[in-house]
Design a protein that fits this description.
The protein is of the alpha+beta class. 17% of the residues lie in helices and 33% in strands. The protein has one helix and 20 strands. Strands 2-1-7-4-5 form a five-stranded mixed beta sheet, with no helix packed on it. Strands 15-14-20-17-18 form a five-stranded mixed beta sheet, with no helix packed on it. Strands 8-13-10-11 form a four-stranded mixed beta sheet, with no helix packed on it. A hairpin with an 8-residue loop joins strand 10 and strand 11. The longest helix is centred in the first third of the chain and has 47 residues. It is rod-shaped, with a radius of gyration of 47 Å. The relative contact order is 0.09.
Length: 281
C-alpha cells in the first residue's frame, strides 16, 4: 500500500476515535446531570414528606389548655381529652376560630393534620346550675354539682337528705315555692336553658276521722298518704236504741256507705266517716 493511502486511512481512523471520545464525553456529562437532578428531587420529596407542623390548643380566656403536639401533614391524630376551665362557663368543644364560628371538634375526636401549623380554640357556653330548696322543710337538700350548657339534659335528684316537714309529706319538686309552677318528679328529666331552683313540694297528710255520729266509742283518727289504700277500722261505736250499720260519708247517711274493715282509698284532703245507725227492734 502506498504511503499516501496509508496516511489517508490513518486520518480517517483518528477522526473516528476523536468523534467517539466526544460522544462518550457528552453522554457521561448528560447522564451525570440526570442522576444529580434525580437525587436532588428525591431529597426534596423526602424533606417535604417529613415536615412537621404544630397543633396548638388555646384556652381562649380559660385556663388549663393541653400541651401542643407536632405531626406530619395528613396524619390522623386524636385530640386531647384534657379540657380547660373557665369560671361561669362550661367547655363545649374545640373550634378553628376564637369566636367559635369555625369548625367544631369534640375532645377526643379524630383530626387530620393540615400542611401548616394550626390553633384550636376552646369554645365556651354559659354554665347553668340546678339548685334545690327545702322550702320550709328540715334536713339536707340534694346537691347537683354539675354545670350545664344550654340545651343539656338534667336528671332530677331525689330526696336524698331525708327532708321532712311536720304535718306534710314530700311530693317531688316544683319550679315555684308555692307549688304552682312546673312539677319535677324524682328521676324525671328536663332541658335546661337557664339557672333553675327546684323547691320541695309539700302536701298536707290528710286525716281520716271517724265520727260516732251521736253514739260513742268511735275509732281513733288515722293519717294516711293520698292515694294509699287502708282497711277501715273494725272498732264499732255504740248508741243506745240503735244498731251500727256501717260508715257513711254523710252524717245523714245519704252519702257513700263503707262496711267496717272495708278497703278505702285515701283522698287528697282530710275526710270524716260517720257511723250509720238503724233503730234497734
Amino acid at each position: 500500500m502506498k504511503s499516501k493511502e496509508r496516511g489517508f486511512i490513518f486520518s480517517i481512523i483518528t477522526l473516528i476515535v476523536v468523534f467517539l471520545v466526544i460522544i462518550g464525553g457528552i453522554y457521561f456529562y448528560i447522564n451525570k446531570n440526570i442522576q444529580s437532578n434525580q437525587k436532588t428531587n428525591y431529597g426534596a420529596v423526602v424533606e417535604n414528606s417529613l415536615a412537621y407542623y404544630t397543633l396548638t390548643y388555646s384556652a381562649n380566656n380559660g385556663t388549663g389548655a393541653p400541651s401542643p403536639i407536632s405531626s406530619t401533614a395528613g396524619s390522623v391524630i386524636i385530640l386531647s381529652t384534657t379540657t380547660p376551665t373557665r369560671t361561669g362557663y362550661v367547655f363545649s368543644s374545640w373550634n378553628t376560630s376564637s369566636y367559635g364560628s369555625g369548625t367544631n371538634y369534640l375532645a377526643g375526636a379524630s383530626y387530620t393534620m393540615p400542611s401548616a401549623s394550626v390553633t384550636l380554640y376552646a369554645k365556651w357556653s354559659v354554665a347553668y346550675s340546678v339548685t334545690y330548696s327545702a322550702n320550709g322543710g328540715i334536713g339536707s337538700v340534694p346537691v347537683d354539682a354539675n354545670k350545664y350548657a344550654s340545651g343539656k339534659i338534667v336528671t332530677v335528684l331525689g330526696n336524698t337528705g331525708n327532708l321532712t316537714k311536720t304535718g306534710y309529706v314530700f311530693n317531688g319538686w316544683n319550679t315555684s315555692s308555692y307549688g304552682s309552677g312546673t312539677n319535677r318528679a324524682v328521676g324525671s328529666t328536663f332541658t335546661i336553658t337557664a339557672n333553675v331552683t327546684l323547691y320541695a313540694k309539700w302536701i298536707t297528710i290528710p286525716t281520716l276521722t271517724y265520727s260516732a255520729n251521736g253514739g260513742s266509742g268511735a275509732p281513733v283518727a288515722e293519717k294516711r298518704l293520698p292515694g294509699s289504700v287502708l282497711a277501715l277500722s273494725n272498732t264499732i261505736p255504740t248508741k243506745t236504741g240503735y244498731v251500727f250499720n256501717g260508715w257513711n260519708t254523710s252524717s245523714y247517711g245519704s252519702g257513700t256507705n263503707y262496711a267496717s274493715g272495708a278497703s278505702y282509698t285515701m283522698p287528697s284532703a282530710s275526710v270524716t266517716l260517720y257511723a250509720k245507725w238503724s233503730v234497734a227492734y
